[in-house]
């Protein structure tokens, strides 16, 4: 349970509350000493250097995320490194600059975070696309945004007001004309 997770990860209870679906917290990624807490839209997870704990894995919205996560984690690394050392081969007198062609192994936690972020971006992109399609399909909203038409109607109304006011103008102002160039 919760106490076991706190013991394994070293996370305080307040960090675990952030993953509670009944509480409302903004999207956040918290880096702690032994774990990363991920709360992105519907992806809620605790990531350590060796494992990932996903909240509510039976949620149908998470199925694509879990499939991608399994696929990405199953991919073999280009080479193996000692996790106790740096993940890059470093040049001797090169000032610790990675050597061209050296293989960099992405740590487990970064692979998981990458999948979390990519999935969240895809979901948000899909939601935005759906919202835009709904907006474009709504004739009332589109007519409200049709500013050129509104401006044209406004100019017609203004010119008719100007013409009406010129009917009652004094003879001294008969030569005045209103012309606007844009």
TrEMBL record:
GO molecular-function term, one example from the UniProt record: magnesium ion transmembrane transporter activity
Origin: domain of life: Eukaryota
Ranges for region Disordered: 158-182
InterPro entries: MRS2-like (IPR039204)
Assigned protein family: Belongs to the CorA metal ion transporter (MIT) (TC 1.A.35.5) family.
Designated name of the protein: Magnesium transporter
């Amino acid at each position: 349970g919760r106490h076991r997770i706190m013991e394994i990860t070293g996370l305080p209870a307040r960090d675990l509350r952030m993953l509670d679906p009944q509480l409302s917290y903004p999207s956040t990624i918290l880096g702690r000493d032994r774990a990363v807490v991920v709360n992105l839209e519907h992806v809620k997870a605790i990531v350590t250097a060796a494992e990932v704990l996903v909240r509510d894995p039976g949620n149908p919205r998470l199925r694509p995320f879990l499939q991608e996560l399994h696929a990405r984690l199953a991919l073999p690394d280009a080479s193996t490194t000692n996790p106790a050392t740096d993940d890059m081969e470093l040049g001797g007198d090169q000032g610790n600059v990675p050597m061209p062609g050296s293989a960099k192994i992405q740590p487990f936690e970064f692979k998981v975070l990458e999948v979390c972020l990519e999935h969240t971006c895809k979901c948000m992109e899909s939601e935005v696309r759906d919202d835009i399609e709904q907006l474009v399909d709504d004739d009332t909203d589109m007519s409200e945004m049709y500013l050129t038409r509104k401006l044209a109607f406004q100019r017609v109304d203004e010119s008719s007001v100007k013409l009406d006011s010129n009917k009652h103008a004094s003879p001294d102002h008969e030569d005045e004309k209103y012309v606007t160039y844009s």
